Amino acid sequence: MPSIVIIGAGPAAVRAAETLVRAGIRPTVIDEAPVSGGQIYRRPPPGIVRDPKKVYGFEAARARRLHRAFDDLREQIDYWPDSVVWSARDRELGVITKSGPRNLVWDRLILATGAMDRVIPFRGWTLPGIYTLGGAQVALKYQACVVGERPVFLGTGPLLYLVAYQYAVAGVKVGAVLDTASARAKRGALFGLVTGGGMFLKGLYYLAWLRAHGIPMISGVRPVCAHAGPEDAVRELEWQDARGSLHRTACDSVAMGFGLRSETQIADLCDIPFTFDMSQRQWMPTQDSHGRAAVEGIYLAGDGAGIKGAAAAELSGERAAHALLHDLGHARSAKNLEALNKRLRRFERFRRALDEKAFKFPIDLAVSADDNLMVCRCEGVTAGELRHAARKLGVTEFNRAKAFTRVGMGRCQGRVCSPAAAEILADTLGVPLEAVGRIRGQAPIKPVPMAAFLHGAAS
Amino acid sequence: MTLFDVAIIGGGLVGCSAALHLCRRDASVVLLERRYCGSQASGVNYGGVRQQGRHLAELPLARRSRQIWADLKTLVGADCEFAATGHLKLARSENEMAALEDYAERAREFGLKLELIGSAQIRERFPYLGGAVVGGSFCAEDGHANPRLVAPAFARAAEVAGAEIREGVEVLQATHDGHAFELRLFDDTVLRARRLINAAGAWGSTVSYWFGEPVPEDVMAPNMCVTDPIPYFLAPNLGVCGGDIYVRQIRRGNIIFGGGVGVADRNQIKARPLADITTQAVRLAVGLVPRLATAQVIRTWSGIEGVMPDGLPVIGPSETTPGLFHAFGFSGHGFQLGPGVGAVLSELALDGVTPTALDLFRINRFQRPHEIEISTPGDATKLMTEPVPARARSN
Q: Is the torsion defined by CA of B6, B7, B9, B13 positive or negative?
C-alpha cells in the first residue's frame, strides 16, 4: 500500500483524509496541534469542554461537523498530533514528534498547511501586548483566554471584524476596530461581495452587531504609534483618520492583521516551483486546476494553496484527495473533480472582491516605514538597513538582502517580516514586488529545540 | 574590444581577493560570477578562520592569509565580524591527544604556536565542555568570521579599486587563441584578457578541462546549522579530532555548528542539508557542549564545495596554457585561505612567481602522482598528518 501523507488537520486536511478513507486508503495525518480542527476550528485542549456555539458562533455547526468527521476517521488513519514537519526533501519528511525525531517516506503527499496573518510593522509594534489577529483568536478558541481586557483591533480583512466580534461577544470591552481600508473601497466592492451569499451576510451581521453595541469602527485608518505604559506594555494606540487627524485610543492590547498569507515553506522544501500571485501579493506553489502541485505526487489544498477561507478549504481538500485518487487510477474521481471545481469557482469572485477591492493590502503603509523602524524583529533589522542594502550594496533580491542585513534570518524565518520587507525592497528599487523574489525556505521551518533531537533514534 | 590584463572566473572569496590584490597593483581586471559573489562555498561555510589542524603543506599559505585577516578592516573597509577568539581542537581519547601533541610539534616549524591543554586543566578553563573531552590544543591566533560578508566585501573593495565585477554572468567556454584568452559568455558576447584565473570552486575542474587539464574534483555540501541567540559563553571556535563536529558562538548569541555533509548537485547548482545529518550534528554538538540542549535550531543550510581526492586544493599555474592560473577544490577548508590565495594569484599573474610555497597543490599531481614526492620538500608521508576528515569538514 502506498504511503499517503497529509500535513495539517484543518478543514482541508480533514476532508482530504475523509475522501481517501472512503476510497479504502489509510493516510497518515501529521499535525502540529494536539487536537484536530486547524486554526479556524481549533478545539480546546483535552479535558476542557466548552459550548461550540460560544467558541465558533455562526460556524458552530460547521465546526462540529468537521470535528465529528475527523473523530470518526480516527481508527482508519494514522494520526500524528503534536508533530512538527521540520524538513522535507525528495520523498522524505523529517518530523519532530513527542517521542523524538522520525522520518516518514511518502508516495503521495497532500499539503494543507494553512495560513497566518500578514503583519505590517509600525512604530511600537513589538511592544508586549501586541498580537496578531490569528493569535488573539486562537487564545480565545483554544483556552478561552483573551489578549487583554481592552483590546484594539487593527488591520484589514474579514478576520478583523470577526475577531473583534468574537471578543465583544465573549464580554471583552473592545476599544475600537481600526480598518486601513477605506469606506469607499468597501462600498465599491459591494457587487463582488454580494456573490459571497451567506458569507457576506455573516459579515454584515458582525458589522451591524459591533455598531449596535457602540464599538467604534473606523475605516481609512493609518496606525501611527503604539505607546507604552509604565510597564513597557502597550497602553495607547495612536492613529490617523482618513482626513489626517490624529487620535489616541487607550488599550491594554492590540490585535493586528492585514489579511492572510499562505504557509508555503514545506511546499518550497519539496522543490515545487513557485508562481507570483498578484491578488495575494505572494509567491505561491504552482498547481493545476485540481490542486496538483508542479511536482509529481504532491497535492495542495486549503489556505496554504491560496487564501479562500474555511468553507472553500473543505472543498479544495476533497478535491486534492480526488486528484490523488484519480492519479492512482480511481476512475470515479474525475466526475467529483469537476463538481468540486464548479462549487469552488463560486468563491472566486467573492475572494477577489475581498482581496483586491474591499480590504486591499495597504502597500503604502508598508513602504512608508521610517528608516529607524524595526521591520525584522527577530534580527532587529530596520527599514533603513533594507533601503541601504538596496541602494548601496547592490542588493536586488530578497535572499541577498537576507545575507547582507540578516532580514528574515531569525526564529520566524521571515514568516512575519517578509511581506513588508519585500514591499520595502521593491519600492526602494522601483521594481514590481515579484522582481525581488521570495525568501528561500530552509529547514527547520519552525524552531526545533536541540533537546527534541536527542531522545529516541531516527528511524 | 577591451583587452583586460586579467579575467577571473568565479566570484568566491579566492576570486574576489585576487581581483582586489590585482587592482591594487593597477592591473585591469574583470571578474565573472554566474550568480552573486560569495553565494556558494565562500558564503555558506561555517566561518572558521583556522590554521590549526591543517595539512602542514597548507600552513605557509594559511600563515600568510592570517596576516590579511588581521588587516581586513584596512583592506576592505569592514572587519566582516572576524574575531581572533582562538580555536580549540579537542581530543576525545588518549590517542587523539597524542596526535594533537604530535601536530603541535610539527606546526611549530611553520611558526604556528599551539598550546596543549591536558585533562586536568581543560575543564577548568572551558567548564562548559562535556565529559568525553580528555584534552585539547588551543591556537590563540585563530577564530572565526561571518562568511556571508567576506567575499562581497572583497568584491566591493575590488570594484572601488577599479575591477569590473560582473555578477549574473556565466562563462560558457574559455580558450586561448595564441594571443589572448577568449571567454564566451552566456549572452554569446566575448571577452578577452591576457591572463586568466580559474577560481571557479566546485566548477574549477570544468574550466581546467577546457584547457586540457582534467582533474578528479568531487563536490560536497557541508551540513550547517544555527540556533537562536543564547547568552554568550563560548569564546573559542571548537573543533574535534576527526572533524565530525565543529561549534562556534557569535557575539550576538547564536550558536553555529556543523558536521557531516548534505547533498550537492553540481549541475543543478543546488545543495541541501539532510535531516538525519542535522539530527546527528545536534547530538554531537550537545555531547561536546551539553548546555546547548536548551538552544533551538532555527535554520540549516548548505552550499557546494569542490573536493579533491587528497583533500588539498589545486593552486598554481596551468601545465598546458601559459597565463592561466588555477585555484579551486579547497575541499572544505578554503575560507581561511581565501584572502591569502588571492594575494598569491595576483603575484603569479603579474610576476609569474610567488614567495609562498605551493608545491603540493600542483594541478598535475593527479595524472602523475609520483611527481608529488619529487617536488615536495621533506617526507611526503610525514606531511600527511590528517588526510581523513577532509570530506566531513568545513573550515
A: positive
